[in-house]
Amino acid sequence: MTFTILAFFAGAAIALQASMNAQLGSLLKNPILATVCAFSFSAFFSLLALSASNNSAPSAKLVANVPWYLWGVGGILSTAGVGLCYFLIPKMGVGNLMSFVLSGQLLMAMLISHYGWFSVPQASISLQKLIGIIAMIIGLILVNKDFSAS
């Protein structure tokens, strides 16, 4: 139950920070600068959390065994995803954008889990999951379409 509450909080925090930083990007007339600000503060607070933790530094051997793409590709994808959110929220609205973001996340998560990429637990795509995706797409249409304007 604790993980579920934390996950719910993480989702709410993502929507809140994306909206705030999209407004920052609009006020600055530069969503890329808002992305730089967000990641700069994120790096600072992550370093604070790391310094407060009891974790020791990894050994050189452990560091050398990490695949090259794990060092930077995630950061590139984070920057693209976050920057696009800051750019798109003023154009689409936060609710519409987040419904598409969530859909993209769920579809990619299903593929990652199905194939067990990045050492995540493998979970095959089932009929139940496909029905869930179809229901999600129907929900996405209902959330985003203004039926009263028709």
Key features?
single chain; 150 residues; 0% strand
Give the secondary structure arrangement, pairings included.
Blueprint lengths: L1 H27 L2 H22 L7 H5 L4 H24 L1 H22 L11 H18 L6
Helix pairs in contact: 1-2, 1-4, 2-4, 4-5, 5-6
Tell me what you see in this structure.
This protein has 150 residues and is mostly helical. The chain has six helices and no strands. It has helices spanning 2-28, 31-52, 60-64, 69-92, 94-115, 127-144. Helix 1 packs across helix 4 (69-92) and helix 2 packs across helix 4 (69-92).
- Residue-averaged pLDDT: 91
Percentage of residues assigned to helices: over 70%
Distance between the termini: 42 Å
Alpha carbon gyration radius? 19 Å
* DSSP, total strands: 0
Structural category is: mainly alpha
Question: What series of H and E elements makes up the topology?
Answer: HHHHHH
Biggest sheet layout? none
Overall geometric form:
globular
Portion of residues in beta strands equals: under 5%
How many helical stretches? 6
State the low-pLDDT regions, or none: none
